[in-house]
Amino acid sequence: MARPKVELHLHLEGAAPPAFIRGLGREKKIDISGIFTPEGGYAYRDFEHFLSVYDTACTVLIGPEEFHRLVHAVLEESAANGVVYSETFLSPDFCGGCDLGAWREYLAAIREAAEQAETQHGITLRGIVTCIRHLGPEQAKKAAICAAETAGDWLVGFGMGGAENMGEQKDFAWAFDAAREAGLRLTTHAGEWRGPDEVRAAVRDLGVERVGHGVRAAEDPALVEELAEAGITLECCPGSNVFLGVYDRLEDHPIDELRRAGVNVTVSTDDPPFFHTTMRREYAALARCFNWDADVFDAVTKTALDAAFCDTATRDRIA
Ligand code: HPA
Ligand code: ZN
């Protein structure tokens, strides 16, 4: 039996199986054939184009019912990969355009499907609302208000994804402050496309306790020490980084170096079908490349559990 896995960084729409999205396109009579390869995978050239293909894929997710079906498809796949706990980015921008009333309906559908999947597959989902950096700070405020109004023991965090090269982390401080005041825990994508200073800015200007990717912190030994000391957790997604060309090969990825330096590293898939990965493949590749054994994987899983945003009762149930 596969070891139970804990995943902290998964974009709900980005986890949509391409066949599911293609099927919805046919059903809704929306022509999205341009985003698929002849083999049926997602087709894109680079990160910018990935974001655009992602947007197009989301055009068929037209209402709460489609998200309900999406959650079932995604959690079935995660559970089949041995994932028992999945912290998943949910986007009010894709769920009704950050309208609070619409968001509540989408969220109810997502939560209902997640609870059904928990009964069926034994996987627990907790939500992190994500704002989208390239839509700008004003739109991020709207996402933060959606998050704050629905915060609780199920919607547990707030974060930011999107194009890291747009604007600065501090431009989004209002959104992160509002989320923090509502009791949400915080993470932001940083240090994937920009270097160590971006990771510094994430911690300093937004006060996040986790960083999405964060791996380019490895370029600055002083920062690595600071992250280790402060107990900041990195949501590393090695397969994503290699597929998108942040690193040429997994051998060049700093996850093991960061771990050895005492940084809290965890393993996630990001947008698995886009990057041709799964949690099982990530684990197998790390074992092969860095000789990670059962003890290392157990330690990484414990790190992920400790850094999870859920309440302690949920954590104790999973552990
Ligand atoms: N990176 C940044 N933003 C995103 C991603 C990602 O992998 N997926 C969806 N939004
Ligand atoms: Zn991501």
Automatic annotation (TrEMBL):
It holds the Pfam family A_deaminase. Keywords: Hydrolase, Metal-binding, Zinc. SUPFAM superfamilies: Metallo-dependent hydrolases. Residues 4-319 form the Adenosine deaminase domain. The keyword Lipid biosynthesis does not apply. GO terms for molecular function: deaminase activity; hydrolase activity, acting on carbon-nitrogen (but not peptide) bonds, in cyclic amidines; metal ion binding. InterPro entries: A_deaminase_dom, Ado/ade_deaminase, Metal_Hydrolase. The keyword tRNA-binding does not apply. Its cofactor is Zn(2+). PANTHER family: ADENINE DEAMINASE. Belongs to the metallo-dependent hydrolases superfamily. Adenosine and AMP deaminases family. This is Adenosine deaminase. The lineage of its organism: Bacteria, Pseudomonadati, Pseudomonadota, Alphaproteobacteria, Rhodobacterales.
